[in-house]
């Protein structure tokens, strides 16, 4: 319908990283790496702990500034949102957490409640609207964080290991939400160390190890014929050192 | 001269009989201290939040100075305000010395560092937790201030109370800049000092009981507010 046509016309700007590295206290934690992400795809950032997955997401989203190099969006900076491993919710009701995000992005006051309720409904949280966000279960909190991101209508959604602390049902809910975002035309950049999850979701994979970008390939290629020895070991479930 | 237990009974009679002298003193005490705390809260909370959010040259010095001022002796604060407001002082023309306004200023000087320094700690802690999320939502640091203050509200109630405790209990500052003038600048603490030295123990004791009761009442109220909202908000 109308929405869909506008979405297909406005193309997601490409993200470019030129010689980006991140150094903390004299230790290089990431890079230098060059990267270009195009199209409205689902990109999974994979790799063992400490590979620099979270760092890469934060640099791309602009939460951190690179120590060297440049992070840029082609043409224009798209609307973005991020969902964190541990959801950060404000000390107010579930509904108020959502109306707050709408207030921040400049939604007129009379529209906020209705739109927030709609989002709660979509993520199966309608019955919990008056509950303080901080006493919700881990899965509910993550869904609320997704609902908040949904309201911001992002063109690019970053998810930093959003399911690593959740049970299978909650993981399913998050993955369904990711698909919904993608169907609506949101580019997905999500980190995970769960291979099964990556197989379910990924169009392409960025494989990091020890702060270096080892592979950037289509999911099909990555899972069947990875080019690097590190990725082969990772897929076989061996320890990557 | 009445015995101590006699003084206690007379004190209770003064309170229960709503003795007008006693009521006037209590009213002025509350007026001065509550005004000072309200002003210190209005200035101190945003100031503390700003110190938690911004880093600039001299930031560390300012934080240390603020922390040190939490222990400022009331008589020193009183002396400084006295020098400022005395006829030869820079603000002497305002004619504020020995008025309740001067007492509010003196208590403000005492309470502001407490509220600002403690608020800074609370907001800084919360900011650690919220920073990435709020930045991701696109908030500037200026716009983070109301959000952080509101979400730190439970802890900040205690901060404001600590300020009120300081204001209502101190005697040195209001004594120096107020002068303990009967009916004009006499508050509970200065009256207790005077009546005790005169030997009028019933009035001193009565005021002491009222003072204790007020502080206990305010703290009990804050405890209840804190507990209920903690249970409600998780």
Summarize the structure.
By secondary structure, chain A is of the alpha/beta class. Chain A has helices spanning 2-9, 53-61, 94-104, 109-122, 138-151, 168-183, 195-201, 219-224, 229-235; strands at residues 15-24, 27-37, 42-46, 68-73, 80-83, 156-160, 187-191, 204-209, 212-218.
Number of domains of chain B: 1
**CATH level-four homologous superfamily name of chain B:** MetI-like
Helix content of chain B: over 70%
Low-confidence stretches of chain B: none
Q: How far is the first residue's CA from the last residue's CA of chain B?
A: 56 Å
Secondary structure blueprint with pairings:
The complex is a heterodimer of chains A (241) and B (234).
Chain A (H helix, E strand, L loop, with lengths): L1 H8 L5 E10 L2 E11 L4 E5 L6 H9 L6 E6 L6 E4 L10 H11 L4 H14 L15 H14 L4 E5 L7 H16 L3 E5 L3 H7 L2 E6 L2 E7 H6 L4 H7 L6
Parallel strand pairs in A: 3-7, 3-8, 5-6, 6-7
Antiparallel strand pairs in A: 1-2, 1-4, 8-9
Helix pairs in contact in A: 3-4, 3-5, 4-5, 5-6
Chain B lengths: L3 H13 L3 H34 L5 H11 L4 H12 L14 H38 L3 H11 L1 H17 L2 H7 L9 H11 L2 H33 L1
Helix pairs in contact in B: 1-10, 2-5, 2-6, 2-7, 3-5, 4-5, 4-8, 5-6, 5-7, 5-8, 7-10, 9-10
